[in-house]
Amino acid sequence: SEPNTAPEQSQTAEPNRISEQHKLTQQLAAAEAIRSSQPVRFSELLSELEAERSSLSNEQKHYLDYLQGYQLSFTGKLELGLEKYKQLIGSDASPLLQYRANLAIVNNLAVTRDWPQGLTHLALALEALPNISDEAMRQNGLVVAAIFYNQLGQYELGLKYASRLENTATAGRTLCFAKQLKLEARFNLHSLETDSPEIQDGIKVCEQQGEAVLSNFIRIHLANVYLKSADSQSALILLTPHLAEVEATHYPRLIAEFYSVMARAHWALQQPELAEHYALKALELGKSLDATQPIVQVYETLYQIALQRNDYQTALDYHIKFAEADKAYLDETKTKFLAYQLAQHQSIEQQSKISLLDKQNNLLRLEQQLASAEAENNRLFIALLILCVTALLVLIYRAGRTHKRLRTLAEYDALTGVYNRGHCTQLATASLDYCRNSSQEISCILLDLDNFKAINDNYGHACGDWVLKKVASVCMASTRKNDIFARLGGEEFFLLLPGCDLDRAMALAERLRAGLAAIDTADSGFSFAISASLGVTGSALSGFELEQLIADADTGMYHAKKSGRDRVSLYSSELREQEQRQHQAAMASQDEFSAA
Ligand SMILES: Nc1nc2c(ncn2[C@@H]2O[C@H](COP(=O)(O)OP(=O)(O)OP(=O)(O)O)[C@@H](O)[C@H]2O)c(=O)[nH]1
């Protein structure tokens, strides 16, 4: 509530909280360190930590649960212990703690002989193993795997994990464990000889570590190999000196097995009293053990002893017990084998499901690749199509332009841009036909520039061209939509006027003449006068034939030239006759001149 003090409080609260957490982690680790050596103190520590549960972090709570699971299992409450461990699996506990919980479960289930579940949790732990960086924890996983597989009778796997453990073991005790587990597996795989050097090596390493239980288990393996090779004497020489040491371990399983082997050795050496002595001792301890091979062998030995003594009743009793134990042992072996087969089968099933899923995934991936390849192809195809269409359009456009240019060249005069003679003939013929059919008048004007040669000569050909273009544009400006204006050639222009009578044609010709005469030549760079002579005719005078119309207009134009140029002349039949007469006269004088 007081803003000034709040930040100060949080600054000091944070380090306090961290040191408190650190203390709790240390307490948890301390508890774990004494879990098997000081069970009472361990239990007290756990109670203290449980009282502080609310102050624990999430992971610390999980760690406490794990230790409580251990305590429950250690005190024989296996089911409750299992429950605690199982809660950790799949929780948000760290992967290391989950791995450890799986290993603890495997140990518990080995005790209760729940092989199928044990295999499931072992598989989970082994799956996590490659990601466990803590070396001691890794080795612990290998120990559990090797013990479990050996117990299950899967000695190949026991050997595999024991060998891995041997190769990585950092502590002498772990190395002793590894060597004992390896030898146990090899004994059961029948790959041990009496002189296998690993046996003496294993015994030596375990003795150095003060691991009497493990060194003597190795001796039992060796003694069994001696018995198999009918060297019972060596078996006894090996075991007898360590009898007291073995009894001092108070480990029933070891002691019972030790006695069992000794009983068989003495029996093989024809020492029935000693054999019976150790067999009965083994049996006494072995009662608490489930059906194991040593117990089966003890009953067999006792049966054989009674039989030799002709004590048939006892022999029968032992034989019945032998048969029962043997059956129980075989049943147990079968159960283990089936559990392993089932786990294998499930794992194969799982694998095939995974590979099926992989195949389906691959198929989907391929389908996706195919779809994207198709899409890519479509894109390429569309791009190609666009390219082709564009190229085609360009070609069409160019062809159109060429066509237009060719048509322009074919139809228009290159210099002035007005119709040329050829196209004019086409258009004029159609127009004349139309007027004739529709009984309309049609007129025409033929225009020839005066003294154009002199313009060329005096001011150059370029200036002559300028004049031609200027004349064309002035004339074009005076034409109507249906009029046809063309350059027939040189300095001669033709204008066809559909629907136009002679009066209006004459008027237009006059306007053209005046327009040309008014051209200002300054733009050409020279100053000179432009004039033209124009001949006019029409359908009323010359009919509807183009050639006739042009010829008559030419007669009119010729007359205008002769009359002094720069004027307009209307064609008439008199003019033609006059022209013919003049022509004839000219021809006659030509003849006279030739004759002279
Ligand atoms: N600059 C130029 N001159 C041309 C073109 N076509 C024809 N000519 C010239 O036009 C001149 C026509 O001369 P002529 O037929 O003697 O006629 P004119 O000099 O106009 O004399 P009249 O018609 O009797 O008045 C020739 O010198 C041709 O070379 C052209 O396209 N450009």
UniProtKB/TrEMBL annotation:
It is an enzyme of class 2 (transferase). Residues 356-383 form a coiled coil. It comes from the Bacteria. The chain crosses the membrane at residues 380-397. Its EC number is 2.7.7.65. It catalyses: 2 GTP = 3',3'-c-di-GMP + 2 diphosphate. Its cofactor is Mg(2+). One of its GO terms (molecular function) is diguanylate cyclase activity. CDD domains: GGDEF (cd01949). It holds the Pfam family GGDEF. Keywords: Coiled coil, Membrane, Signal, Transmembrane, Transmembrane helix. Residues 440-573 form the GGDEF domain. SUPFAM superfamilies: Nucleotide cyclase, TPR-like. The keyword Transmembrane applies. Residues 577-596 are annotated as: Disordered. The keyword Membrane applies. NCBIfam families: GGDEF. This is diguanylate cyclase.
